[in-house]
Amino acid sequence: MNTHFNNEDIFLGRQPIVDHKHGIVAYELLFRTAHDQTSADVSDDLLATASVIIQAFTELGIEDVLGNNKGFINVSYDLLMSELVELLPKERVVLELLESITPSEEVIARCQVLKERGFMLALDDFVFNDAFIPLLDIVDVVKVELPALTDAELCGQVHQLRNWPVQLLAEKVDTPQQAEYCASLGFELFQGYYFARPAILSGKRADPAKLALLRLVGLVLGDAETHEIVQEFKRDPGLTYNLLRLVNSVAFGAHRQITSLNHAISILGRRQLQRWLQLLLFTHAPGAAMLNDPLLILAATRGRLMELLTQLIFPNNRDMEDQGFMVGIMSLLDALLGMPLEQVLNQLNLTDKVRTALLHRQGVLSTLLRLTEQLEQNDYDGVLAILDTQPEISLGQLTVAQLDALGWATSISAPAEESNKDT
Fold first, then answer.
1. Is 202 domain-assigned?
2. Are 55 and 186 contained in the same domain?
3. 180, 185, 192, 130: which is closest to 154 by C-alpha?
4. Could you report the per-residue pLDDT of 311-348, keeping only the tens digit for each?
5. What is the pTM of this model?
6. Cα(170)–Cα(69) distance, integer angstroms
7. How many structural domains does the chain have?
8. pLDDT digits (tens, 9 = 90+) for 62-110
9. Residue 346 DSSP code
10. What does the longest C-alpha to C-alpha distance in the chain come to?
11. Which of 48, 72, 234, 391 has its CA 20 to 30 A from that of 176?
C-alpha cells in the first residue's frame, strides 16, 4: 500500500476560531485527499489518514499557515488510540475528538495519557451525557454546534458545563446576533463566518475613516498626483500610522524599514500602495489597528489567492493579477462597511471586469472568486466542480497557491501577535 501523498492529493480546509473581541486565536484544520468522495467520507485506513495530516505539517509548511495560533485537528477513535497521533506537534495542535468516539474506559485512559504528555483536547459537537463526565475532567475545550440545539437546550448545556473549567466554543455561528447571544451565555470562543456576513442597515453612514480610505483608493486608481495622496493622508494622521504598521509587517522586514508616508510611496510604488490601502480598509480605528482581525485575514487571503490563480490563467499579465487581487479584497467591503456593495463601488474608479465580477458575478474573475469562497466553506465537491471548468488550474496548483495565500495573510498579523505575547 502506498501511504505517501503529495500536495496534489491533499485538500486543506481552514476555518478561524475567534474570541469575544473577534481576534483570531486558533484555526480548525481539515485534511482530505483527492481519493475521498464526499465531505462526510472518512478513510478507514488509519495509516493513510495519519499520513495526510502529519505530512501536511512536515511537508506543506502548514505551521506557517497557523502563525502563532493553534490548529484544531479532527481525531477519530483509531487515530486517538494509535501512537501516530503523538507525532503531531503538541505545542501547535488541539486534538478534537470526533462525536463518533464513545467515552469508554480505554478512551478516557488514553486522553489522560495525552493530556499528561502536554496535548490539549477538545470535544466536538458535544451533547451532554453523563457518560462524558470523566472526559470533561480532562478536556480543555467543548465545542457546541448551534444548529443542533434549540435555545432552551443550548442554555441547559451551558448550565451543566459550568461545573467544569472548560472553554466553551460555539460552532457554526452564522450571524453577529448569534455570536452576541452565545457570548451572553458564557461562550468564549466562536467558529463560523458570521464576521463576513453583510449587515446592511438602511440609511447607515459608513465610518468616516473608512470613507477617507475609499477616497485614497480612488485617488490611486485614478493615478492622482503624489501630493494629492499625501494631502488626503494628512487629514487623518492615524491612517499614516496604520499604513506604515501594516506595510512594515511583511513588505521588507528589518532590512528596509519604511518610516514615512513619502518613503512608503517612493519605495512601494503605486501598484503596491494600492494594495496596502485596500488591506488597510479592514483594520480597526486609526492608531489601534487590530491586525489579527479575521475579516482582514480573510480579505488578504482572498486577494492573494485570486492574484496567484489569475497568474495561472493569464501568465505575465500584471493588470489581470491586480484585478484578481482587487476582486478578492473588495468582495468583502459590504461586510466591512455595512453598505450595499454597489454603493461602495460607485465611489471607486474600477474596471468593467472588476465591477462585473463583484456586482453581477460574471466572467473569469467571478469564477475565481467562487472558487475561493468554496475553499473557505470547505466545499470540496464545489471546488472540484469549478476546477473542471478551469483546465489551467490543477488541484495541486490550487493547494500550493492556497498555502502561499494563507501564509502571506497570516504574516500580516505577526506584529500584532508578537505584541500580544509581550503584554
1. no
2. yes
3. 185
4. 999 999 988 998 999 899 889 888 888 788 888 888 77
5. 0.78
6. 18
7. 2
8. 666 787 889 998 888 988 998 888 888 899 899 999 988 999 999 999 9
9. T
10. 72
11. 72
